[in-house]
Amino acid sequence: MISSYVRDRWHTATDEGVTLRDASTGEPVARVSSTGVDLAGMVEHARTVGGPGLRELTFHQRAAALKRLAIHLREHRDGLYEQSARTGATLADARVDVDGGIGTLFVYSSKGRRELPNDVLYVDGPPEPLGRGGTFVGQTVYSSRPGVAVFVNAFNFPVWGMLEKLAPAVLAGVPVIVKPGSQTAYVTELAFRHMVESGALPPGSVQLLCGGVGDLFDHLTGQDSIGFTGSAATARRLRSHPAVVREAVRFNAEADSLNCSILGPDATPGSDEFDLFVREVVRELTEKTGQKCTAIRRSLVPGTQVGAVVDALAAQLAEVRVGDPRDEATTMGPLVGRDQRAEVRQAIARLGREAEVVVGGPDKVALTSGDAELGAFLAPTVLRASEPRSPELHAVEAFGPVTSVIGYRDAADAVELAALGRGSLVGSVVTHDPDFARRVVTGVAPWHGRLLVLDRDDAGESTGHGSPLPHLVHGGPGRAGGGEELGGVRAVLHHMQVTSISGSPAMVTEVTGTWVPGAPTTGDATHPFRKHFEELAVGESLRTGPRTVTLEDIEGFAELSGDRFYAHMDEAAAKANPFFDGRVAHGYFVVSAAAGLFVDPDPGPCLANYGLERLRFRKPVYPGDTLTVTLTCKQKTARDGEAYGEVRWDVAVENQDAEQVATYDVLTLVATRPSG
């Protein structure tokens, strides 16, 4: 009996539950049941133990915990691979799931340290001035919600499906309840046991519910969220749950998706792109036995190339070896179970009313190993559409190794056919013709969450049509659920509450920990660059002495840099420019001159400048203008385990009339005070 992890303890149901069987042999593997689980207690434990524990940690500390978790799971991959074989997954399939999930943890750990502050509050963008006098400003911030994230996952990715949702939630400071797809829950449970053993996460941060959800949703409130992956029908039912509607529980769905890949007219047989297209379709047909929400269900090709594409697919699919994934000769395993195979067979029958089965079929499979009677084997199947706009082709999803080859007339026709799917997670365009790529991408983008343009130039590094990446959005409109996961920090912010704060610059500075122009500043006789990280205070400021810009400065900078743009070198031409009254100083000279005014030259705690952000040149600088700089400590970000921290400085360069001529942020690394 698979166990659930409830309130930091393992719970095993005492009833018979549902029997789960090996996809290749039909032998019983495990039983699953949630009978006896205290569902209300799970939610309460997440809120009162898991949430407070996570919210005590900064983004960086949560990111470090994710890294420790990833390292621990990486050390136990082999056992997860072995268990995955029972689900029908080949070793290559298992690596996509297991390694993909672990890789997602590493990515979010890295992004948490690089893109989020070492704080519990995320400040979004610059402050907004709300009054003419500068005494009233607004700032957008994100804070951790005191709720729980409930993840209802599908059977096809028992490890990745859990970890790709869990990583951004934990990084956001929100505890998690994972409900895996029952058919493969024994793989999820094993991965979860390793997670618990790692001790990487605070108590109550993660809980596991194996079996039915019972009345779990009844205990959710507006501070909670649901992430669902599965069928569109189930998504509609869960989205309309009375508690979800009444409490306005956040609901993110990744549902059915009739993804398409479009072959460009330039990609004729023998071209690199034609071969790439065929290889990509075959991979999406056979990887995970086509049980991927991102698999290519519709292969859209020029009408004149339908026969050639079908022949090429048939030739490559003839090399596929279907069998027990524990057999080294196997290149495609069975579906997850016989019930799933029955559903796919029914879908093929429906598609067969409007298309001809030209490769494989529901009952034609040659096995290299496995039990033909008790296993859930199905041959990779290709259908050839007779009428491209037949409704079933764009409505029926066969969640298995099945694709339909559909001919189109031109780019506009391909766009219309793609849109008939009513929303997809991913689409791809395989072409070396930029004009065709642009026309198709701009046409189909509103119907897709992600688009891949594949050609000979990016094929070597491309991760392929069906691979969601932590850095990019995973989700899609319409039929695909209308949700959005991953996408880097976007997924973290999804679990947080966005709030606008308005007040005086001083008050907003105190609340956010980031200095806002107009807030008070401090300073003393010690240059800020001579202070260690701990000694610097947000709002500490230095105002420099003046420097007068000369014509010799401008000409010298032009000689040194090689920048002889006419506005710097030709008085008459500069005056003819609508923005200038004559020769002007280079913008980058102004930045360099400003550095010369505020930089302390001697060795000290300020170790390095690693960049500028938000640079704007606000007014021209002419020969004879006098520049003064105000340097203010804007934000401090400690680096756990490092001998330095990051300091962001606000730089304002003014002329003799107190007019700002340039503003920007300088990013520096500043040493911490030596221990002892």
Describe this structure in words.
Helix 2 crosses helix 6 and helix 3 crosses helix 4 (91-115). The mean pLDDT is 94. The strands form 7 sheets. A 7-stranded mixed sheet has the order 14-15-16-13-12-17-18, sandwiched between helices. Strands 22, 23, 24, 25, 26 and 27 form a 6-stranded antiparallel sheet that branches. It is of the alpha/beta class. Helices cover 32% and strands 23% of the residues. It has 19 helices and 27 strands. It is globular and about 90 Å long.
- Overall strand count: 27
Main beta sheet: strand number and arrangement? 7 strands, mixed
Structural class category = alpha/beta
On the 0 to 100 scale, the average pLDDT is 94
Name the beta content range: 15-25%
Kindly report how far apart the N and C termini lie.
Answer: 55 Å
**Overall radius of gyration:** 30 Å
Neighbour order of strands in the largest sheet: 14-15-16-13-12-17-18
Q: Figure out the total of helices.
A: 19
Envelope shape: globular
Outline the low-pLDDT stretches: none
The percent range for helix content is 25-40%
